[in-house]
Specification:
3 helices; 6 strands; disordered N terminus
Length: 158
């Protein structure tokens, strides 16, 4: 039996938007390589990438190769998995990372300006599909916030 206690994890089950999404023309996708525990639950880097890339590709937000977005912004995908004989447990994190100015120190740092996370628990059979679905949901939530802050330009009537 596995018992999990979560105290004060920011972003668990919620996503937060900031005005930092405004005028964001494109982003890169960076997927943290899953470890051996993830492999036991059929979680792969290519599966994680596809779960995020496909909704982004269907949107107006451009996708660039890592390190080539216009301002260095990227969606960071990280899934931490614990494999047990009875099933799998995972913490999913999807975060928009941007270069930000830290007001109190005046330093320039890479920080999360949007974050969505979730904990999943279940049998190993079909677990990777559940992880993919959850990442697509978070990506769509991110895109919804981005669209709110970047509406389509109005076109002049003919």
């Amino acid at each position: 039996m596995v018992t999990l206690i979560v105290l004060g994890l920011p972003g668990v089950g919620a996503a937060q938007a900031d005005t930092e999404l405004e005028k964001l023309p494109n982003i890169s996708i960076v997927v943290e390589e899953p470890d051996d525990q993830a492999a036991k639950c059929n979680i792969t880097a290519s599966g994680l990438d596809a779960a995020v890339r496909i909704p982004l590709d269907a949107s107006r937000l451009g996708i660039r190769e890592p390190g080539k977005s216009s301002d260095g912004s990227y969606l960071y995908v990280n899934v931490v998995v614990l494999s047990q004989p009875v099933g799998c447990m995972a913490y999913l994190d999807l975060a928009l990372k941007r270069v930000v100015l830290v007001g109190s120190t005046g330093k320039i740092e890479v920080g999360s300006v949007w974050d969505g996370g979730r904990i999943l628990v279940g049998p190993a059979d079909g677990f990777s599909a559940r992880v993919g679905t959850a990442l697509r949901e978070h990506t769509n939530t991110f895109l919804g916030e981005w669209i709110k802050q970047n509406p389509k330009p109005e076109t002049a009537p003919n």
